[in-house]
From TrEMBL:
InterPro entries: Aldolase_TIM, Dihydroorotate_DH_CS, NMO. PANTHER family: NITRONATE MONOOXYGENASE-RELATED (PTHR42747). GO terms for biological process: 'de novo' pyrimidine nucleobase biosynthetic process; response to toxic substance. This is Propionate 3-nitronate monooxygenase.
Length: 345
């Protein structure tokens, strides 16, 4: 590894990575803008078909833009059906303004088109593939590496870092508790104690000899410098890109990030059945104590409500994913964010 380890991992000129934000926030335009500014962008393949991912890859290649792709590792069916139905009835009134009968929902478990996406990335390789929500199967890791792809795994503890290293991956994504969106914990029913990003980077680096990409809670250039000093090979940012011109975040989400009445973020499973950090709102306050663990079943249960609420400008029923640095998310081009975060490195 050279003195600029981000070049070895990503081929970028700066150690700044655009984090993959599933659900529409990460767009082709955002990936292109981050990479053009000297960073490295990731497509978020979560919730998308292989055909949709392939179309985005073709779009990026048409402009000569390299990128990474992030995949969700499918988990076992763990939902308690009685608890699911009780929760669906409890939140039923939240769907009524949009003509949704949430109480009639049945649990939906899927693997997010896992095999099709692996096949796509083997047939049409990209420089880097990252995984979150757990450990990918060893055969997929080996096949991707044979195809010339560097493989990263998201970890939230030193134990997860060691388990990922045992798979023979090329690097780790150390996701601190400050990160917005879903936690990448491998065991959502038994998550490790929360660890801030800096200490997690040091723990992951000490537990393995792998390069570590740090993510979570970045609010400005001081955080980037501190995480690099802690041993990170590069730093990923997501929340700071949500209000940029190229972001696909909804207007409701963008406005909430700038709303002075939003006083902080919390970890919640109320929307999707998996721990995730977002701006506190009424839905979380009402239902977090009652929400069962069960991803993706709760994700599918509330998905239509969340989409309708976002379109209608109703932030109290939307998953307003955000990391703890959300106050520093600014409008304007994404390139300006990359430049601001790396100007003093």
């Amino acid at each position: 590894m050279t003195g600029e380890p981000w070049r070895d991992l990503f081929g970028s000129t700066t150690p700044l990575v655009g984090a993959p934000m599933a659900g529409g926030a990460t767009t082709v335009a955002l990936v292109r803008a981050v990479t053009a500014a000297g960073g490295f962008g990731f497509l978020a393949a979560g919730y998308r078909t292989a055909e949709a991912v392939a179309a985005d890859l073709a779009d990026l290649r048409a402009t000569g833009t390299p990128c990474g792709v992030n995949l969700f590792v499918p988990g076992p069916r763990e939902i308690d059906e009685a608890a699911f139905h009780a929760y669906a009835h409890r939140i039923a009134a939240e769907g009524e303004p949009y003509g949704l009968d949430l109480a009639a929902a049945t649990p939906v478990h899927d693997d997010d088109h896992w095999a099709d996406k692996i096949d796509l990335l083997l047939a049409d390789p990209v420089p880097v593939v990252s995984f979150t929500f757990g450990l990918p199967d060893p055969a997929a890791v080996a096949a991707l590496r044979r195809a010339g792809t560097r493989v990263l795994v998201t970890v939230t503890s030193a134990d997860e870092a060691r388990a990922a290293a045992d798979l023979g991956v090329d690097g780790l994504v150390a996701q601190g508790t400050e990160a917005g969106g879903h936690s990448g914990t491998h065991t959502p029913r038994r998550p490790a104690p929360p660890v801030s990003t800096g200490p997690l980077v040091r723990a992951a680096a000490a537990a393995t000899d792998l390069p570590v990409l740090a993510t979570g809670g970045v609010a400005g250039p001081d955080d980037v410098r501190d995480l690099l000093a802690a041993g990170a090979a590069a730093v990923a940012v997501g929340t700071l890109l949500l209000r940029t011109d190229e972001s696909g975040a909804s207007r409701t989400h963008r406005d909430a990030l700038a709303d002075p009445a939003r006083t902080g973020t919390v970890l919640t499973r109320a929307f999707t059945g998996r721990p995730a950090r977002g701006l506190r709102n009424a839905f979380i306050d009402r239902y977090e104590p009652h929400a069962p663990l069960g991803y993706p079943e709760l994700h599918h249960l509330t998905r239509g409500m969340r989409a309708a609420a976002a379109g209608a400008g109703h932030p109290e029923r939307v998953h307003l994913w955000a990391g703890t640095g959300y106050r520093n998310a600014t409008t304007g081009p994404a390139a300006a964010v990359v430049e601001r975060l790396t100007a003093t490195l």
